[in-house]
């Protein structure tokens, strides 16, 4: 080949290589991964809260949910908030799009608080227009239905309606509470909890570093407020349960029993409930010793109802709007007149009166020192009772030897009425003293439990991951289904999965654009994966707006949303997003990889040709 020809070929080769390089740069700029919302179906936010050092899993939930929903090409930004701010923004002003919420401690499934317009816990911004008032009608029928079987069927209908036709939430879990104790401790039953188990508990010998069989040492969470109407923390609830008894005692399923301070009752008619006060129940002495030997009376019951219905004393006073009035029926009986719907002239029955009366009584003779409830809760007596509580329960609070949020000391109350929850066994309090140790985290509580001298039984709360850290030889682990429901709430006024989209029809009958989006997101939450990863599989996956704690009315056949990308994409397409079987983000990544492969092959070919040319020239 002549020299001019070789020069021409070299020029062509260099032009070809340069073209490939320019093409590669163009491909990276046009098809490479880019930040921002360009590949998002839509953007949304997820809010959750933290509570100091308390072990919560909401951060883990949020990370998992953001990743799962992100697989659809939906960009989710999660916001961690302090609990007080969360209550203000989400529960109060309802300024959110999605939020992780835990609803706990209700004596009955008060769905009217969640799904009635203007209700205090209607965080969803649910309105009757979403279903022409059907939800509201079902709730009213449930509230007023006195037949248990008929009421259960109504509950089933409501749960199915909410989870198929509304989807205001994505239910996640009913948590499990974890108790761990030394294996020489006998008689504890998790379904009863510590307080109800105490009359049947005792030690069989001594465990490592234990020095007494007549003292029980309990590991609990933090505590500060021991007023039954304002307490909130788990440690507070346990301490109060040791000091006080409830009017109506509920069993592990939330069913009323006759083991409480109201030992029997009957309905005189559908709207008149007669409560019979247990005879011979003694109050513990007050801290000042002014009233050393008082007994529970109908006056204490009526005064407790005064406090419970008052907005000055009880933040949850709206739950008790069904109480129309009450008076003495006789010297040992209180008659409660019921009206579940005060807005109508007729008195309406209320099906959950007994459950709502599972409350702690207050001593009228000690606290009724002012003319109004507002003045009573501002009085020195009220403050003193809050700091030095007393009741009719098994143990008395020893303020002298207690330190708030650290250690609580309690002594056996010799005047306790002696009625336990086991109808067969004899109730007897073996432990002369109880000492509680407050721990802010499960790990330090576990160390103290295994050391042996500080804790005999530990209430780890809703932290089943601790089970893996407990030695099997010396300890027993017991789990209890918690009265709680964790869920992801939708703001039904949000412009994407609520608002006007609630009324935009789709090609699927009965499914609006907003409902289709909510269903799509529900299909993307991997509950089983989350449960295994964060709770060792011990939480109870829940698919209904009712906690599994209420097992008698939880609808096992409710419509569910098992993890399915295909179903999620199907519902997004129904909503009008026109998404292929691969998400938008995935398609872009695939295009980029294809172009990159072609360019890389071209560059490799060009470089190979160049090297061969040079090799021949050297040769």
Account of the 3D structure:
This protein is of the alpha+beta class and 619 residues long. The chain has four domains: 3-36 and 584-618; 42-175 and 487-574, Dipeptide-binding Protein, domain 3; 177-244 and 393-481, D-Maltodextrin-Binding Protein, domain 2, CATH 3.40.190; 251-385, Alpha-Beta Complex (Dipeptide-binding Protein, domain 1). It is 33% helix and 19% strand. The chain has 18 helices and 21 strands. The strands form five sheets. Strands 15-16-17-8-18-5-19 form a seven-stranded mixed β-sheet, with helices on both faces. Strands 2-1-3-20-4-21 form a six-stranded mixed β-sheet. α1 (3-31) packs antiparallel against α18 and α5 packs antiparallel against α6 (148-166).
Give a short overview:
The protein has 619 residues and is an alpha+beta fold. It has 18 helices and 21 strands. The chain is globular.
- Tell me, what's the shape? globular
Uncertain runs with pLDDT below 50, 5 residues or more? 2-9, 24-38, 583-619
Query: What is the number of beta strands?
Result: 21
Amino- and carboxy-terminal Cα gap: 16 Å
Structural class determined from secondary elements: alpha+beta
The CATH architecture category of the largest domain equals Roll
* Top-tier CATH class of the largest domain: Alpha Beta
CATH topology call of the largest domain? Dipeptide-binding Protein, domain 3
- Enumerate the strands of the largest sheet in spatial order, edge to edge or round the barrel: 15-16-17-8-18-5-19
Number of domains: 4
Task: Give the quaternary arrangement of the chains.
Answer: single chain
Helix content: 25-40%
> What does the main sheet amount to?
7 strands, mixed
Rg from Cα: 32 Å
Q: Mean pLDDT, as a whole number?
A: 89
């Amino acid at each position: 080949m002549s020299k001019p020809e070789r020069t021409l070929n070299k020029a062509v080769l260099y032009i070809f290589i340069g073209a490939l390089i320019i093409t590669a740069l163009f491909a990276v700029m046009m098809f490479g991964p880019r930040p921002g919302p360009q590949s998002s179906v839509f953007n949304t936010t997820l809010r959750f809260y933290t509570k100091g050092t308390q072990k919560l899993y909401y951060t883990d939930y949020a990370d998992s949910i953001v990743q799962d929903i992100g697989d659809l090409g939906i960009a989710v930004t999660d916001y961690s908030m302090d609990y007080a701010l969360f209550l203000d923004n989400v529960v109060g002003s309802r300024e959110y799009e999605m939020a992780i919420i835990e609803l706990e401690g209700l004596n009955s499934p008060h769905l009217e608080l969640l799904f009635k317009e203007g209700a205090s816990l209607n965080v969803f911004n649910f309105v009757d227009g979403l279903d022409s008032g059907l939800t509201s009608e079902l709730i009213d029928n449930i509230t007023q239905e006195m037949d248990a079987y008929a009421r259960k069927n109504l509950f089933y209908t409501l749960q199915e309606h909410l989870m198929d036709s509304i989807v205001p939430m994505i239910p996640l879990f009913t948590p499990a509470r974890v108790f761990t104790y030394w294996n020489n401790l006998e008689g504890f039953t998790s379904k009863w909890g510590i307080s109800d188990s105490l009359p049947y508990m005792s030690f069989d010998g001594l465990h490592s570093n234990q020095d007494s069989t007549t003292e029980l040492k309990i590991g609990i969470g933090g505590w500060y407020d021991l007023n039954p109407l304002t307490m909130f923390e788990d440690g507070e609830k346990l301490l109060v349960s040791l000091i006080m008894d409830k009017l109506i005692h509920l069993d592990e399923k939330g069913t009323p029993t006759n083991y409480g301070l109201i030992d029997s009752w009957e309905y005189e008619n559908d709207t008149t409930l007669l409560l019979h006060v247990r005879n011979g129940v003694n109050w513990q002495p007050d801290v000042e010793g002014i009233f050393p030997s008082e007994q529970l009376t109908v006056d204490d019951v009526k005064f407790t109802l005064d406090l419970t219905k008052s907005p000055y004393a009880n933040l949850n006073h709206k739950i008790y709007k069904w109480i129309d009035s009450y008076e003495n029926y006789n010297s040992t009986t209180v008659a409660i007149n019921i009206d579940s719907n005060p807005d109508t002239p007729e008195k309406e029955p209320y099906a959950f009166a007994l459950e709502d009366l599972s409350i702690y009584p207050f001593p009228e003779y000690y606290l009724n020192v002012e003319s109004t409830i507002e003045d009573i809760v501002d009085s020195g007596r009220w403050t003193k009772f809050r700091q030095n509580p007393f009741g009719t329960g098994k143990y008395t609070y020893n303020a002298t030897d207690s330190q708030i949020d650290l250690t609580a000391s309690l002594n056996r109350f010799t005047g306790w009425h002696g009625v336990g929850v086991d109808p067969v066994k004899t109730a007897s309090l073996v432990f002369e003293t109880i000492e509680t140790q407050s721990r802010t985290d499960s790990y330090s509580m576990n160390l103290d439990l295994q050391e042996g001298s500080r804790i005999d039984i530990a209430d780890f709360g809703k932290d089943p991951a601790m089970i893996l850290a407990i030695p099997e030889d010396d300890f027993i682990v017991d789990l209890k289904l918690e009265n709680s429901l964790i869920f992801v709430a939708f703001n039904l006024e949000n412009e994407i999965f609520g608002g006007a989209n609630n009324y935009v029809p789709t090609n699927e009958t009965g499914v609006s654009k907003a409902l289709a989006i909510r269903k799509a997101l529900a299909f993307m939450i991997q509950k089983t994966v989350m449960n295994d990863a964060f709770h060792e599989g011990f939480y109870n996956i829940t698919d209904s707006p009712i906690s599994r704690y209420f097992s008698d009315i939880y609808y096992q056949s409710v419509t569910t949303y098992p993890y399915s990308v295909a179903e999620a994409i199907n519902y997004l397409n129904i909503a009008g997003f026109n998404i292929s079987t691969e998400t938008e983000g995935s398609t872009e990544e695939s295009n980029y990889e294809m172009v990159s492969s072609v360019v890389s092959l071209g560059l490799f070919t060009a470089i190979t040709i160049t090297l061969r040319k040079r090799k021949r020239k050297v040769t």
